[in-house]
Amino acid sequence: MGQRVIVVGGGVVGLTTAWWLLEAGYRVRVLERAAEPASGASHANGGQLSYRYVSPLADAGVPLKALHWLLQRDGPLRLRPEADPRQWRWLAQFLRRCNTVSNARTTAMLLQLGECSRTAMQQLMALIPPDQFAWRAPGKLVLYRSPSLFDQAAARAKAERVPELGQDDGQAVRLLSPGEALRLEPALEALQPALAGAIYTGGEAVADCRAFCLSLARLLHSHPRYDGTLHGDAHGWRIAAGKVVALETSLGPQTADQFVLAAGIQSRDLAARAGLQLPLYPLKGYSLSAPVRPGDLAPSISVTDFERKTLYARIGDQLRIAAMVDLVGERPAIDPRRIASLMRTARAAMPHAADYAHAVAWSGLRPATPDGAPIIGPTPVPRLWLNVGHGPLGFTFSSGSASLLAGMMQGRPVPIALGGLTLR
Known about the structure:
Blueprint: E1 4-8, H1 12-23, E2 27-32, E3 48-49, H2 62-71, E4 77-79, H3 85-96, H4 100-125, E5 140-144, H5 147-160, E6 173-176, H6 178-184, E7 197-201, E8 205-206, H7 209-221, E9 226-231, E10 234-240, E11 243-249, E12 254-255, E13 258-261, H8 266-272, E14 281-291, E15 302-305, E16 310-315, E17 318-327, H9 336-349, E18 360-368, E19 375-378, E20 384-388, H10 394-410
Parallel strand pairs: 1-2, 1-13, 2-9, 4-17, 5-15, 13-20
Antiparallel strand pairs: 3-8, 5-7, 6-7, 10-11, 11-12, 14-17, 14-18, 15-16, 16-17, 19-20
Helix pairs in contact: 1-7, 1-10, 4-10
């Protein structure tokens, strides 16, 4: 009989963690405070699985761009200063990482994690049929309005050459003129005059994260070593002889041999109750899910408008539009002004793509580290492990980070360098 593990968090990171631990031989129980899985940041996120397009927010020039964004009516960034030292600590650490060297280092790590995640997701899709969560792999188009930004991105793509530009392997990177981008994706008709160019990456996918979580939850319940899901609040830890021996919850203390924090931004406070300071801050994002009707010109390819920081993904019979980074603390409520801004952006970019009048709005708190890399692995507190801080790429990296954590907990060698992904 395997060791018992409690995973705190029933979003996509927590559920994938539970699955890979079950497969590694552990007995697993999940604690989730909501009535159903994927009720937080996993509920209506952008839906893009961008394994090869990883663009950490911290980069050279971002501080100056941020000042410009803050002055824009429909800018992608909002900042509400708080009397919370965690906000200012995170911002200071973020600014220190806004340089080319740090960005390149983080990007290299995330590309390795992306390939690991692609492989792990393919293994899961052998058990969860792709049509259960609207999975498709139409590729990804990143649009650039500024000629200089497009030239910089094109030079970076040529330098990386992963794979070779023009190589026809189904995942090739292609540099496109505005006209070529329109021919590849007719839904760009209204945007095409404003474009300087685009970069297409084949093989990138889209899917419904919530539907994936619901299917994965059913799969967990069918596993012989799964000890079920508890619905309650986590309050803190019971520590004896320097080790975590129980999780204090609204349902009473829950004992196990190991504990994994995968509870989104809630992980920050729970870690603090074990004496750990996690460099996490909630990046509040928004989305619209608009029905696609017969005759609508919805994009087939996953599209990211680089300067507007807005993505468009056709997920089943819905168009998902997601955007924005609001640094406003733990305020989950939808800001109607931001939704109105997102609606204006979508209508201007793709006016005939969906039934915007019946779009459903959502907002979520995405727990991010200053450099954009998640934190995976052990803590200084024995028996307490982390799988947190994935920011806007939780769906993309969930399967890979879960498989890595399971290997680390077993003491097995892991396939990628972990120096930048562990608790620093």
